[in-house]
Amino acid sequence: MKLKIGITCYPSVGGSGVIATELGKLLAEKGHEIHFISSSMPFRLNKVYPNIYFHEVEVNQYSVFKYPPYDLALASKMAEVAQREKLDLIHAHYAIPHAVCAFLAKQMVSPNLKIVTTLHGTDITVLGEDSSLTELIKFAIEKSDCVTAVSDALIEQTNQLINPDKDICTVYNFIDEREYHRKDVGNLKQDYGISDDEKVIIHVSNFRQVKRVQDVVRTFKRIHERIPSKLLLVGDGPDMRNVSQLVKELNLEDAVLFLGKQDNVAELYSISDLKLLFSEKESFGLVLLEAMACGVPCIGTRIGGIPEVIEDGVTGYICELGDVETAASKAVQLLSDQQLHQQISRGALQAVNQKFHSTEIVNQYEQLYYNLLQR
Ligand code: GMT
Predict the structure, then answer these.
(1) What confidence tens digit (pLDDT) does each residue in 158-213 have?
(2) Residue 128 pLDDT greater than 70, yes or no
(3) Which parts of the sequence belong to the Glycosyl transferase family domain (predicted)?
(4) Ligand 1 atom at minimal distance to the Cα of residue 284
(5) Is the CB of 93 under 6 A from ligand 1?
(6) Burial track 158-189 (b if 16+ CB lie within 10 A, e otherwise)
(7) Does 285 sit in the ligand 1 pocket, CB within 6 Å?
(8) Are residues 220 and 125 in the same domain?
């Protein structure tokens, strides 16, 4: 049975928007009809798909309102699309505001419209601690027909912080294997001024403070003292000023390349030997999976869902938060032992192709939709 599915996400660059869009694309490839309902075109929706539709939520600025009522406009758009297109379900990525809006739309349309909500982390770890929103997040979860989270750790955290009366199941994130694989990138490494004998270490994030990019720089300093290497910093965000200041203080200006926001990160992973992600909050860490799919071993912190993505000693290494000494010595060991590097790189690829394979994950979502509609 082909389904008609509404998907709502934050369309801007960010893991949750990437997952929502890639899921929509793969479901459409399986013949389902997908309706994206959001404030702008999801950024990964970069070509025409005959059974994917985009419905833009427009918010008018009326002088009587201090704030434009985006959430109400979204709920109203969801109801309009659900009714006209006869949607079977809405898949909301984020409990608030998206699942709340979907609940409102359901009240307007029909109790038969099902709501699937996926928790991505930021909605729980940040907002769950804001007591003014806790009850609303709980409500959004409990009123959804089915709730998934991107890691077991996020479920545990949700239960601790919010304690909803709802079973939540884990559906891991995935990547599009057709995009993320090691590519032949010609002279890209030399074009960046990196010599053949230098190792390339990479960090990709939105440079929010929770990503602890300064720990990446401190770790790199220790690696660089022992191994000829360069650090690629990819992305931009509020912590960038502090990070560049630290790079200066540590005299690393010639060894660190600030590449800003980049679209084709698979090409950058293809010249990389190691990826570092030292976040203090991370429900999954999609960027780890992207690197692993390109055969790049990762070192991450024992935080949130990271240890579910990196199996310590098998597909990468896990370190304690802030322990840059241990992180650096694991990195040096990995970068100076070719056999070990190959072994971990193979382990990472295997995990991407089994535990996190897109076919498997998309099937899990599809099965979950069917179960819901048969109830
Ligand atoms: O990490 C961010 O700053 C972006 C955020 C988002 O909402 O897009 O990412 C969250 O969702 C991703 C997709 O499920 C996860 O891979 C990230 O780990 C998660 N971020 C946090 O938990 C901080």
Answers:
(1) 999 999 999 999 999 999 999 999 999 999 999 999 999 999 999 999 999 999 99
(2) no
(3) 187-348
(4) 18
(5) no
(6) beebbebebebebbbbbbbeeebbbeeeeeeb
(7) yes
(8) no
Ligand 1 atom with minimal separation from the 17 CA: 8
Regarding the beta carbon of 44 and ligand 1, being less than 6 Å apart is answered no
**44 within a domain of the structure (yes/no):** yes
Residue 179 lies in a domain: no
- Give the helix/strand (H/E) hosting 115: strand 114-119
| Count of CB atoms situated within 10 Å of the CB of 50 | 7
- φ and ψ at residue 279, rounded to 5 degrees: -60, 155
Residue 214 CA neighbour count, 13 Å, CB half: 16
**pTM of the full predicted structure?**
0.95
| pLDDT grade for 13, boundaries at 50, 70 and 90 | low
Q: Is the residue at 180 inside a domain?
A: no
Which atom of ligand 1 is nearest to 304's Cα? 22
On whether both 364 and 349 belong to a single domain, the answer is no
Q: Residue 97: what pLDDT?
A: 93
88 is a domain residue? yes
Q: Ligand 1, atom 4: nearest CA belongs to which residue?
A: 14
Q: Is the C-beta atom of 284 inside 6 A of ligand 1?
A: yes
Residues 32 and 164 reside in one and the same domain: yes
Gap from CA of 121 to ligand 1 centroid (Å): 6
CA 119 to centroid of ligand 1, rounded, Å: 10
- 108 shares a domain with 72: yes
Dist CA 43 CA 25 (whole Å) = 12
Phi and psi angles of residue 356, each rounded to the nearest 5 degrees, phi first: -115, 20
Predicted confidence (pLDDT) per residue in 299-348, tens digit: 999 999 999 999 999 999 999 999 999 999 999 999 999 999 999 999 99
Domain span holding position 86: 4-174+357-373
Same domain, 15 and 164: yes
Instruction: Give me ligand 1 centre to Cα 1, in Å.
Output: 32
The answer on 326 and 230 residing in a single domain is yes
Ligand 1: nearest atom to the Cα of 282: 22
- Reported ipTM: 0.98
Atom of ligand 1 nearest to the CA of 94: 7
What's the mean pLDDT in 256-284?
A: 97
| CB 15 less than 6 A from any atom of ligand 1 | yes
Cα(90) to ligand 1 centroid in Å equals: 21
Count of CB atoms situated within 10 Å of the CB of 37: 27
Are 32 and 77 part of one and the same domain?
A: yes
